[in-house]
Amino acid sequence: METNILKFEHPEYLYWLIAIPIIIAAYILARYISKKRFESFANIKLKKYLMPLYSGQRQNIKFIIFILIITLTIIGTANLQTGSKLENVKREGIDLFFCIDVSTSMNAEDIAPSRLERSKQAINNIISKLKGDRIGIIVFAGNAYVQLPLTTDYAAAKMFLSTINTNLIPTQGTAIGPAVKLATQSFGNTEHAKAIIIISDGEDHENGEAVKAVQEAVKYGIKIYTIGMGLEDGAPIPIYNKYGKQTGFKKDKEGNIVITKLDDNMLRQIAEMGDGIYVRASNSNVGLDKIFNEINEANKTEIESRVFTDYEDQFQWFIGAAILLLILEIMLASGKKEWENKFKFFDIDNENSK
């Protein structure tokens, strides 16, 4: 498949173009001040007699050339590239869904800074290590939703990850079953190696639904890994107002502070059924690295990705044009030569002075 695409190798250099309007504004101001100073000395109509070799029009042309030189040099430095071919590139990897618990119990701070924030930090670190794997994100509480479909765009994955919080799903709960079912469906009918990583405190009161979803996933060759977020002693659940300030802790109907504890047995059962492993997180280690190493040892399959190749540098055209304009600018003196008066090359300025 043939197509065309344009991109800059170093787009960060294009920020220097912001200086162009500033330079233009400074030039206009300088010309205005110069005119006012002359008017304080003599009538502007006498300028062509007092300064016969002066040409304001020539200065304007030189300045325009100067601006073009700067613009072309910046674009040339950023190196515009053209891609002329779209090829199918085979990459090895695994399809991986992170199922992240976003129920309010994940705000507990027995694992600092909180169960959810520590989970996000660990996932972010794992994403930085991925090569060729497709990843997706599913968030769940009382319901489950796809936050990010399977992709190899790791920058997008990190961006979506950063937006995850316990306010995403208003219905509370820990619906692990629906999350596993949604991930199974979202993989699609591909032959790629597949895995699900569930990160939760495990407080699911519908254990039967989770077991059924895991059994169904295993039929499709999906491995399931689990990470238990939380310590055995548990911790209270902080409550925050809309400004993010903590206002207290969650309480039951009797007014007692609710202590959320890790449901260790359930997460172990899910991992065992899913032919994966279970890791209990701690303040020193979430355990994702161990699971990541386990996944890397699995048989990865080829994942097809389409990428533009054969980029050609085009900077030479911009730099070449800038050099030609520089030569022209050097040859073009600020004032008129005496012989030019015979041809009246830059008399527009004189006409404007009348």
Can you describe what's shown?
With about 350 residues, the protein is an alpha/beta fold. It has two domains: about 120 residues, no CATH class; about 200 residues, 3-Layer(aba) Sandwich (Rossmann fold). It is built from eleven helices and 13 strands. Strands 5-4-3-6-7-12 form a six-stranded mixed β-sheet, sandwiched between helices. It has a three-stranded antiparallel β-sheet with strand order 1-2-13. Strands 8-11 form a two-stranded antiparallel ribbon. β9 and β10 form a beta hairpin. α3 runs antiparallel to α10, α6 runs parallel beside α7 and α7 packs parallel to α8. The longest helix has 23 residues. It is elongated, with a radius of gyration of 33 Å. The two termini are about 65 Å apart. The relative contact order is 0.17. The C terminus is likely disordered.
Indicate the topology:
Blueprint: E1 2-8, H1 19-41, H2 47-50, H3 56-78, E2 80-93, E3 95-101, H4 115-127, E4 134-140, E5 144-151, H5 154-162, H6 176-187, E6 194-200, H7 207-219, E7 222-228, E8 235-236, E9 238-240, E10 246-249, E11 259-260, H8 264-273, E12 278-280, H9 288-296, E13 301-313, H10 315-331, H11 348-353
Parallel strand pairs: 3-4, 3-6, 6-7, 7-12
Antiparallel strand pairs: 1-2, 2-13, 4-5, 8-11, 9-10
